[in-house]
Amino acid sequence: MIDLKEKFTRTRAQTEAICTPLEIEDYSVQPIIDVSPPKWHLAHSTWFFEQFILEPHKPNYKVYNADFAYLFNSYYNTVGTRVLRPNRGLMTRPVVAEVYAYRKYVTAALLEFLEGDFPAELVPVLELGINHEEQHQELLGYDIKYILGNQPFFPSYAGKTNLTAEKFASEFVNITEGVYEIGKQSTGFCFDNELGVHKVYLNACSISNKLVSNAEYIEFINAGGYSNFNYWHAEGWDFIETNKLEAPLYWHKVDGNWHYYDQTGLVLVNGDLPVMHVSYFEAYAYAEWKGMRLPTEFEWEVAAKQFKWGQLWEWTNSAYLTLPWFF
């Protein structure tokens, strides 16, 4: 319980630290449907603990504001109605200060609960809530970047990118033909859609041990990758044609050189760093141009045990589906 208490405290503080560089005007912006305002993330991750731990289980707990369950639910249909996702940016109220007061109230109440007779059966719920908030920290990073990265003057957020160039030797990892077990098998927390350990058969194949670099991706652009429909899914080709895409998200050509937006503002693309913010369609087209293909989810999971990766999410050629026997 001590470890979970410390992790809960650290997680709550980290979410707020992510928002510290923001100006008050940044908190309520929702430039597109897929971007949620930072204020909403702060409140939604708080509502989770109130809704699923404090309100039903903490003796004499008084809900901070009954309206917040409607304002800050996301897709939990079983616990009531909610503001529709496209409308999150319309909420100028509650003001940011009140959202932070809400966070403080719920955090204090949960810590007090943990000091007392916290039911053992709620430990998995608390652990889920902590990991849920960590998910929203990642989403906060994405959403803040989109909000600031679409401002006319590309304002600085904070610090510098934590990506590193992959200096190790490039080689292909071989996967031998055979039957492999897939799914979460180690101990510790996992989300339920990682479960359903099962066997799959894989043909022999090989996969690169390095992420694609910006310099490598620029080669694809310079070779006409965005103008040759032969590399693209039909849907992908329609997507880039409709949106007039010529490069990854946040990339801009300035005086003949590619720049992109990162935490510090608009900067020259660092060719040594892994390429970011490419869609599935772009990843597929790049692989086609290289005369290769994207791995399946199962090939990637088997090969990943031999990788030094861990910096970025990676595309596979598999649809996002639950594992067999997932309920």
| Classification by helices and strands | alpha+beta
The order of strands across the largest sheet is 5-6-7
- Rg over C-alpha atoms, rounded to the nearest angstrom: 22 Å
**Quick check: average pLDDT?**
94
What assembly state would you assign to the polypeptide chains in this entry?
single chain
Strand tally is 7
User: Main beta sheet, described?
Assistant: 3 strands, antiparallel
Percent helix among the residues? 25-40%
Could you give the distance between the termini? 28 Å
Molecular shape: globular
Give the helix tally.
Answer: 9
Uncertain regions spanning at least 5 consecutive residues: none
Order of helices and strands: HHHHHEEEEHHEEEHH
> How many domains, in number, for the residues?
2
Q: Hey, roughly how much beta strand do the residues contain?
A: 5-15%
In a nutshell, what does this entry contain?
The chain is built from 9 helices and 7 strands.
Properties at a glance:
two-stranded antiparallel sheet, three-stranded antiparallel beta sheet, paralog of FGE (formylglycine-generating enzyme), globular, 327 residues, alpha+beta
Describe it.
- 39% of the residues lie in helices and 10% in strands.
- The protein is an alpha+beta fold.
- It has 2 domains: 2-149; 172-304, paralog of FGE (formylglycine-generating enzyme).
- The strands form 3 sheets. Strands 5-6-7 form a 3-stranded antiparallel beta sheet, with no helix packed on it. Strands 1-4 form a two-stranded antiparallel sheet.
- Strand 6 (257-262) and strand 7 form a beta hairpin.
- The mean pLDDT is 94.
